[in-house]
Description:
Blueprint: E1 2-6, H1 13-24, E2 28-30, H2 31-41, H3 44-55, H4 61-72, E3 81-84, H5 90-99, E4 104-109, H6 112-120, E5 122-125, E6 131-133, E7 149-150, H7 157-171, H8 173-180, E8 184-188, H9 193-204
Helix pairs in contact: 2-3, 4-5, 6-7
Bound molecules: adenosine-5'-diphosphate and zinc ion.
Amino acid sequence: MNVIFLxxxxxxxxxxAVRVCERLGIPQISTGDILRRAMKEGTxxxxxxxxxxxxxxxxxxEVVIDIVRERLAMDDCKGGYLLDGFPRTVQQAEALxxxxxxxxxxxxxxxxxxxxxxxxxxxxCLACGGTYHVSRLNGNVCEKCGGELIQRNDDKPxxxxxxxxxxxxQTAPLIEWxxxxxxxxxxxxAQPMDDxxxxxxxxxxx
Length: 206
Ligand code: ADP
Ligand code: ZN
């Protein structure tokens, strides 16, 4: 099954994607993770992407489209995959339709108010990528690996507002786009994590 996770930043796409991929035995393809890795490694793509990401803007379509096209051509995608954070613009969706057959698009919906609270309070582990919310933290280390927890540059309050604005202007039109193609399934992302996971599996019919 080839699946897309759509939804605003902070909806829980990443967390749910890990669980769904584990359950279905398919790779998770997160353009955000790929870009952050490229930034850390200092590759040309990473260097080019940094100023967009830190500003809460989208990385240019050509860059992410190339990344995804190359990634989907790899062997582990033959049995299905989950795209997390791509497409984010109608141009990206149109390009994707030229090289991929999508079976389902899961739209994880959460109100802006809740998203702002989730994102501004999010802390991530430098070592393993685990995510936490400040309200449920004791100390400043990762429960899983003891790594240092930091706030992502793009989770700073001003940047969170830009990201939500970008989402509404550029990504939300994809809801209509995929709905018109009969692929859209909506899930409430405000419910507890396990309920959200169950709702996603149900929406996927697995
Ligand atoms: P979140 O879902 O929390 O916003 P991601 O990790 O998916 O975070 O993305 C972080 C940043 O990476 C985005 O704000 C954007 O700058 C860039 N990015 C990720 N995916 C895309 C994409 N498909 N198109 C353009 N930019 C992207
Ligand atoms: Zn960790």
